[in-house]
C-alpha cells in the first residue's frame, strides 16, 4: 500500500488547479487513543475491524467527515468499501479487490485504484465521502503480466496516471483521468523496466518521483513523468550496502519517504535534500511480527499510519510527528500541443528537424517538411497527416526558401544535410502543390555535416549555410543557370565547438547559430562582413545544454527567437534584437483530452507568423518530439498554436 497524501500541485497557465485544499488541517480520525511513541519506537494498536474482516488493503481519507466514513478498504469478499472507524460501510463496489491507492481530486471527489481478481483487470473509480457513492469504474485492459501493486500519479496539469508494477520487472503507465474526471477509455502511455522482484510502489506527485521496492536489494526512485529519461537512483539498499535488512512497502510524506523493514520490524524515514534522500530517523514497530503494507495520511504535523502484519493478517494503527518546511519549486509555464504528425519511418532516434512551407495562395494547404535521419524526408499537412515521403538518405536538418530560378523555372527549394556522404541534398518544391522532387546533391568539404539554414538577402537569391560538428560553418550561394544546380562558396567561419541549430533573419540580415554546449551566437548574414560571432545567450540558469533547434517568429511589431533547451526539455523565448531580452520559458505538456503526449528532448523546431487559417491564424510552432508516448513508439512532430504561447508568455 502506498501514501495517500495529496500534495499541492503547481498550476499551469492552461489547466487550472482542480484540488481544493482546506484552510486549516482536517482533524485526524480516532486512530491512536492507546498508542505510545517515543524517539525510537512505536506501539501500534490493532484496528479491531480488521480482526473481523479479511482485508487486502486500507487507505485513510485526507478529508474525513465528522462521524462518518474516514477510510477505504479493499477485500476479496466485499470489493471496495467506504468505512468509518467502527467498520460501518457507507458505500460498496462489488468485486474481488486487491491493492489500493487513492488521490483527492477536489473537496468532493476521490479517485481510487484497485485490481479486481474476478475480472483480472485494474480499475479506477471515483468516490464521494459526502454523497457516499461510487462512479462507474474505468477498466484497464487485462495486463500481460501479474500485477503486484499499483499507484497513482497526478502531474502539474492535473492529469491522472496509474502505474502498474508487475512480475519479472514489467511495468506500465496509463493515463486514466484529466482534471476531476476519468477518461472514457484508459490510454497506454509507456512500458517500464522495473526491478524483477518489485512488489510495492508509491509516487511523490510534487517531485514527480516513482518509488519502487526490490526485494533483497532495496528501494529505487524512477521519474514518474513520462517525458524524462527512465534513470533510476537508489534511496537505500540492504546491508552491507545500506541500512535496510529488507524492503517492503513505501509511503510518501512531505519532503520525505517512509520505508517498511519487515525483517527488523522497523520503519525508516528519509528526507529529500536536493536530488538525494538522507536517512532521518527510524522507529521500532513493537508488537508487529511481519509488517508488510504501509499507508499514511497527513493531518497537520501528524502522520496517521496503517500497517498490516502478515503474520496475523490484521491492520495496526499508529501515529508519529513529521515537520517539513516546504520549499518553493521553480515552475515552468506549460502549454499544450494541438496536433501531432504521423510517425516517422525509422525506429529509435530518427525524427530531427522540421521546416514550414507556405502555400502561395491558400495558406491552409501549407505543409511541414520533416527529416527522418535514418530514411529521408517526410511531408505533412497542417492536420499532421503524411502526404509524401522521400527515401533520400540520412538527412539530419532541413530548411527552405521560395523563388529560386532554376533554368527557365521558378521554384521553391528545400536543402538538407546528408550525413552519409557529407553533401547537400536539394529538393524542388512545386509552388502550386507543394510536391517535392529530388534535384540531387552538392558536395561539401565538411567531415561531419550536421545542421543547416537558408538565407535570402534579396528575392531570388538563396544562400545555404551548413555546419560541421567541428564548429565550421560554410556559406554558399546557389546558382541555377541553364537548369544546372551549382554552389558557390562565399565564406567560412566557425564557433568553438559543435553547432547545429541555425536560423537566418532575411529582413535584418542576421544569422543565429546554436553551439550545443555553450549557447546562441549571432553575426551578420552578409558574407562580405568579417565580424566574429557575438553572444546572444549562454548556457546557464535558463538555457540548458544541449542547445538544439532555433526558430524565428517575425511578428508585426516584435520578432522572437525560440530556442530548444534540450537539457531540461523546455524552450526559451528571446526578443530577436539586441539586447535579446529574455521573455520567458515554457514546456509542452500532455494534451490528455486530445490524446497527444507532451514534447521532450527536442532537436529541431520551426516557427512561422503566417496566418494559416483556422486555429493557426497567429502562426504555428512545430517541434520535434524525442520521446513518443501515449503510446510509446516511433518519433514524430508536434504542432502548437502561436496564440497559446503568446498568451502564456504575454508576448506582443
From TrEMBL:
The keyword tRNA-binding does not apply. Keywords: Signal. Residues 1-19 form the signal peptide. GO terms for molecular function: inositol hexakisphosphate 3-phosphatase activity. The keyword Signal applies. It holds the Pfam family Phytase. Residues 17-320, 325-649 form the BPP domain. This is 3-phytase. It comes from Permianibacter aggregans.
